[in-house]
Amino acid sequence: MSESAVMTSSVPGAKKPFYRTLYFHVFVAIIIGVLLGHFAPSLAVKMKPLGDAFIKLIKMVIGPIIFCTVVTGIAGMGDMKKVGRVGGKALLYFEIVSTLSLVIGLVAGHIFHPGSGFNLNPATIDTKALTGYTTAAHQQNTVEFLMHIIPDTVTGAFASGNVLQILLISVLFGAALAATGERGRPLIAMIDYFAHTFGIVHIIMKVAAIGAFGSIAFTIGTYGIGAVVPLLKLIGAFYATLAVFVIVVLGAISRLLGFSILRFMSYIREEILIVLGTSSSEAALPQMLEKLERLGCSKSVVGLVIPAGYSFNLDGTNIYLTMAVLFIAQAFNIELSLTQQLTLVGVAMLTSKGASGVAGAAFVMLTSTLLVFPLIPVSGMVLILGIHRFMGTGLAIANTIGNGVATLVVSAWEHELDRSKLNAGMSRRRAD
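Request: output the structure for the sequence above.
Response:
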């Protein structure tokens, strides 16, 4: 090997051959997982521990990463008014875009009419499979959700891995540390140094392809590609709506900020593929924190917006909620008035915040919505149960992209978006 080649390969950020990149490895793993699930389903189902292990590894480091990022960011601000301002702007943006995504899901349900032709009778549907979800939905009302944000103990929040609880502790700790002034500088430096040891994420990401393979093989092996055929119209309509939302709505927001949504998606393509393989947006959280900082967002904004967005900025989930409810109504031949549909949007706005941290959160949110909105039988969810994981993958991807755009918006709003880094990051991905 020539001297110049050695030097190039040793330079951080030097372009790798495509076959050595993470996104290529994950993409190939997903294809192999789909093939294994289709042709050898009994073997594919046994691959589930590979996906579960990868997600557990990621969840293992999420708590400390969020804590270090938020604490050092807030303590570095030194101004609690600024913390409140950033949080307020983030929540305002979340609610505006969330309402828009709920309405878009509703409109798409009317345009595609995916539930027409089923002509279901509630009395003929077996609802035993829904028992676990309805129980969780009853337990996750708005008051319970708000109370659950406060952990029983500081260590309990990290032990459970609840993102909102960890965020609350981090904000309070960062505020207290900022109030100590110069005396707190050594501790801030120590936490910042500790944060750098979480380069462990890069080690974990080396097995991302194995995790994606295990998850997708299990999904296809369990449900089979044939399971989606009867409900292909709903799945196709859902993914088409997600694509329109990302390209048109998030694309317009991105254009106002001066960048292309397609280039941004290229910039986070590894994270999108990981979410595609694992059906979990949390699997990409540590990498998203790091990449958005590298893209020019301030550390404090990234630390506040990304974790909060996992409970308050669920664009894909919102589209899923209103489309799924309208699909079930159409399957039962239930006509909803305009007032009832607007009520549905209001109910979904609340219930979409009420199942954070619950297994199968989107499905629990859907159950909660139907329980609060009794015009539509909950039993209709049996139709969606078999294809939920296929739809869950799409909504997780949309949520990940939406949270990335939200962070860029709030950073720009705060005049803390480094345009030179943003342009360089986008240009570099385009060159790749």
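The CA atoms of residues 91 and 312 lie 7 Å apart.
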